[in-house]
Fold these 3 entries.
Entry 1:
Amino acid sequence: MEDTRPIIFVVECDDDSLDNVRRALSRRYDADYRVLGECAPQSALAALRRLRDSGEEVAVVLAGQWLEGTDGIRVMEEIGELHPLAKRALLIDWGEWADRPTAEAIFEGMAHDHLDYYLIRPVEPPDEHFHRLVGDFLYEWSRGRAGAGLEITLVAEQWSARGHEIRDLLARTGVPHRFVRSDGAEGRRLLAEVGRSDERAPVGIMREGQVLVDPTNVELINAFGVDTALEEDRRDFDVVIVGAGPAGLTAAVYASSEGLSTLVLEREVVGGQAGSSSLIRNYLGFSRGIGGAELARNAYQQAWVFGTRFLLAHEATALRLDGPRPVLEVSGEDPVTASTVVLATGISYRRIGVPALEELTGAGVFYGTSISEASAISDQPVYVVGGGNSAGQAAMHLCRYASKVTLAVRGETLADSMSQYLREALEATSNVEVRHGVEVVNGGGRSRLETLTLRDRASGRTEAVPAAGLFILIGAQPHTEWLPAEIARDPGGYVLTGSDLVRHGRVPEGWPLERPPLILETSVPRVFAVGDVRTGSTQRVASAVGDGSVVVEQLHRLLAEPARLPSPLG
Ligand SMILES: Cc1cc2nc3c(=O)[nH]c(=O)nc-3n(C[C@H](O)[C@H](O)[C@H](O)COP(=O)(O)OP(=O)(O)OC[C@H]3O[C@@H](n4cnc5c(N)ncnc54)[C@H](O)[C@@H]3O)c2cc1C
């Protein structure tokens, strides 16, 4: 019978080392994986090329740094092109990180995206330190792989905008899923099996057989056992948090763990912008980086076990401050009241404002990185617009799939807007090109994006280029348009809090208390703002998390003195 087990591949400098690593891996993983290996780098690359050509899956590659005629990082670079989804780690000996050339190799490999991490060679079995990391790599690889453990198969037109939204939602919630084009043989067969041969809208087929035709977000979330309605008698909370990005999730963890009855309202699913980031490398404590969706899922579970109530796929549409307690109006639900409100609504990407491209949103044109679409543009040219870190990260992520990624930047340099490690990574990646002084002014395609028009800002010359994807990351605007006028904002719409509200030692007009606003309090007492939506936020996961934890201490201060609380507007 054909052996379809995915592969763990080892490249080591000599037979003894190779045997040692292979033995340790085989002992633990033989039931589910094939463990293969080579000493000579050229033989290893040839074997990995054959595996790619025969469509076999390589899950993890481990390689030593000091190989015959080359080094591990160069080999890993080539392996990344052959098997872009494989996790790659450099094998080193205990203490070898103190050796400068090895340390430099690790820094370079990770900065240029040729390595996921490093691993200390196994010693006496059972070496749980070694296996813990191998297990993490296998887990991460399996999350990015279409295959076993599927909860839902989505059948939709390849470039349907709603199909794209659903895939994005499934990717962000971490539901194992698979996408099948409705116009292919398998798509037609699946639709016929569920009696939906003529269906144009997306169809979800659940593992247990339930069929969801053109499901809403609420229907999808309900189908996975997550409640999206509130009990009739639970409409009043100590704190209602609007937004389940890093700031809102952190506030929820701290508030509910400290005994406050807590509701989180989220118009989509948990994660916010961070949920769309393929790899966050600078968040404290995750030395290998962590996928934004995974970080958000963990935080959601953490808040949930402390008792936070979540109302997902429901948007806060108005905040009423005319009664004794703040009231939030919610789409598709009755209003909720709260002793305190935390605004954690974040920001979203500025639109490109080109009608032809707006029409193709979801059909080749995407705002953000869109982790769910990366494989759909495989081996085709794509463009990323923007000059910030998020645009750089998007380009580094997409170049694993696309034949070529062009970063289109309006300015003449990235030095002021993008971290040095990302600039170096872009420069060192053969299928990434950075084009300065250009803007995307038009685009088109029959049912999806096929071409873009670029304009050289200096000469005004335009050129049409083939493009299967356009990923737009060009700045942002805060989600504050639904707030009442009493919540003071800066000219960009960001919410003013704390000392930003105090001018020349004077509290804002209409402020009803003697004390000035607390550091995260808005111009209305009991209403707070945290994370990216706040004026002056540094717009990082860590600062959103910091705000989310600090705000809860301020909520306690207010709630501990209920007798002194005035109504929100005094
Ligand atoms: C592609 C990408 C990559 C990034 N990479 C990094 C990185 O590597 N490191 C780093 O530190 N930072 C990174 N960032 C920035 C980081 O993700 C943000 O700073 C962080 O997510 C801000 O958190 P937040 O909770 O304030 O807001 P957001 O993450 O924007 O979350 C706000 C949430 O509020 C919800 N919402 C909005 N309005 C309403 C409403 N009316 N009712 C209900 N819900 C509402 C939104 O749906 C959203 O879920 C990245 C951002 C992006 C987009």
Entry 2:
Amino acid sequence: MKWDIKDIKTWSPEKHLPGSTIPESGNTRYYNTGSWRTDRPLRDTEKCTQCLACYFYCPDCSVLVEDQKVVAFDYGHCKGCGICAAECPADAITMHPETDFRGRE
Ligand code: SF4
Ligand code: SF4
């Protein structure tokens, strides 16, 4: 179902359901949900065997694949859960505190 949200900015709190309003599927592209990540995955391209396990296990579709190969993480949406690092059979992914990157981007 797709809602008519043309006037959403005028909605009162009563019109929003408890929690939040998700007016259509696929709307995470509008939100930088990776902004509250505390740890960031990094992939060692030398160790990576391109098995794609990280891609299949990531609950946020944040492992980016092109031509059937992992090419990057989508840090705009990766929440830093570490599942990719835990499941990587080659130990190619390590988690690092976001504070290590502060001021370097
Ligand atoms: S799970 Fe590990 S070895 Fe497999 S593609 Fe991802 S990083 Fe590479
Ligand atoms: S840390 Fe979690 S959300 Fe981020 S890429 Fe790995 S599995 Fe996906």
Entry 3:
Amino acid sequence: MNVVDWPSPNHAPRPADAAVDVLALHYTELPLKESLDILCDGAREHRVSAHYVLAEDGLLHRLVPEDRVAWHVGRSHWRGREALNATSIGVEIVNLHGDRHDYPRAQIAALIELCHDILARHPAIVPRNVVGHSDIAPKRRIDPGLRFPWARLALSGIGLWPRPGAARLDAASLEGDVQAALERFGYPPAVGVTTADIVASFQRRFRPSRVDGIADPQTRALLADLLDQVGSEA
Ligand SMILES: [Zn+2]
């Protein structure tokens, strides 16, 4: 992997008592240069950053050391915790709109290598804690988008993906309230957003072919399978 140091002034100390246990993936929505300019701008009113920016050709830009907090997620929630910048690593992937533009092969190959390195350095990042910005900030954020290859990453051991057959309608279906089940997996409560927003967020990640916010049988079956995979970890 080709790596270049591109230091950003936008970072803070990690809290003393918190292990890094979340890996958050984003798309930049802007070309490489503009993205780096914003993420390294120490004079903006709302300063932002990320640990890494990954160019379309796979060149990795290292902005913030992993033992410092970068400011990449903002208001966020996962598995009962909020303000996830403190305990997460953020990777910004250059893509102008992940719903419309595919991620180039070289970029994803570099991303997989980077994620393997990060996961090896931070064993507390369990598979379900590899998330998209859209998972931890439903409605407010849609990145990394419908074209992000989550299944490819999961095949490489990065994050979770429903098992083959999970989407069949005769698969084990989800019992009970969908909001409660989404929260068991990690999604936020319906506060400031609706359950439909959170279902849409789940679909964006795990069933990108139809994102309508309706907890239909297929959506429920996929969620049941994922909960089964995490088992007692829930
Ligand atoms: Zn983002």
